[in-house]
C-alpha cells in the first residue's frame, strides 16, 4: 500500500493479438457470446489482457548487492603449500563439494592432512583414509565429491554435528581435536 505523500506508478499493458484470440474463442462459446457483445472488443480485450504494477513508490533506490570476494580458495592454496601437498591441490573441487553438501570447506582438506598428509600417503586416490586398503577412487576429484556426499548424506553421518561426524569417522577421542586444530590453520 502506498504511504500518504508517495506517488504510485501504474502500468497497463495490452496485447492485441492475444486479446483477438481470446475474443475469437469466446465468440464461439454460447454463454460467452452475450458477454462479448455486451462488453465489445475493447472492453473484453482490456479485461483479459491487462496487467498492472501498482504500489511502486517513485524514486526508491534499489539496494545494490555487493559480492564479497571468496577468500577460501586462496586460504586453501596457502594451506596446502605450507604442508607441501602434491599438486594439483584440487581447491576448486574441495570448494564445490563444500558448497554442494553444505560442509565447512576446511573439513575435507583437514581430514586429508590428518589421514595421508594430503595425499603423500594416499592409496588409489583415497586421501581421506576412508576404509583404508579397501576404498579407492578413480580420481581425487571423484573422491572429494564422494567424501562430501558420505559425510552429509551417509547413514552414519547424516544429521550429525561436526564433532559427531568426526567421532564416527574415527572413534579415537583425540581425533576430533586433531582435525579441528588443522581446520583452524586454514583461516
Plain-language structure description:
This protein is mainly α and 187 residues long. The protein folds into two domains: 1-66, no CATH class; 72-186, Lysozyme (Orthogonal Bundle). 54% of the residues lie in helices and 2% in strands. The protein is built from eight helices and two strands, in the order βααβαααααα. The protein has helices at residues 16-28, 30-49, 72-82, 91-101, 107-116, 140-153, 162-169, 173-186; strands at 11-12, 52-53. A two-stranded antiparallel sheet has the order 1-2. α1 (16-28) packs antiparallel against α2 (30-49) and α5 (107-116) packs across α8 (173-186). Mean pLDDT is 82; it is low at 48-53.
Write a short abstract of this structure.
This protein is 54% helix and 2% strand.
Amino acid at each position: 500500500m502506498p504511504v500518504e505523500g508517495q506517488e504510485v506508478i501504474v502500468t497497463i499493458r495490452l496485447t492485441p493479438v492475444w486479446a483477438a484470440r481470446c475474443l475469437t474463442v469466446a465468440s464461439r462459446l454460447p454463454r460467452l457470446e452475450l458477454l462479448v457483445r455486451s462488453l465489445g472488443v475493447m472492453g473484453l480485450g482490456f479485461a483479459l489482457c491487462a496487467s498492472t504494477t501498482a504500489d511502486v513508490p517513485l524514486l526508491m533506490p534499489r539496494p545494490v548487492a555487493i559480492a564479497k570476494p571468496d577468500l577460501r580458495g586462496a586460504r586453501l592454496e596457502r594451506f596446502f603449500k605450507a604442508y607441501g601437498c602434491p599438486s594439483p591441490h584440487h581447491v576448486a573441487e574441495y570448494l564445490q563439494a563444500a558448497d554442494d553438501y553444505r560442509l565447512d570447506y576446511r573439513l575435507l582438506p583437514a581430514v586429508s592432512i590428518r589421514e595421508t598428509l594430503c595425499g603423500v600417503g594416499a592409496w588409489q586416490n583415497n586421501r581421506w583414509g576412508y576404509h583404508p586398503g579397501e576404498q579407492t577412487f578413480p580420481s581425487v576429484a571423484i573422491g572429494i565429491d564422494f567424501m562430501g556426499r558420505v559425510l552429509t548424506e551417509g547413514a552414519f553421518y547424516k544429521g550429525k554435528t561436526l564433532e559427531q561426524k568426526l567421532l564416527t569417522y574415527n572413534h579415537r577421542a583425540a581425533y576430533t581435536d586433531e582435525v579441528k586444530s588443522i581446520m583452524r590453520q586454514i583461516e
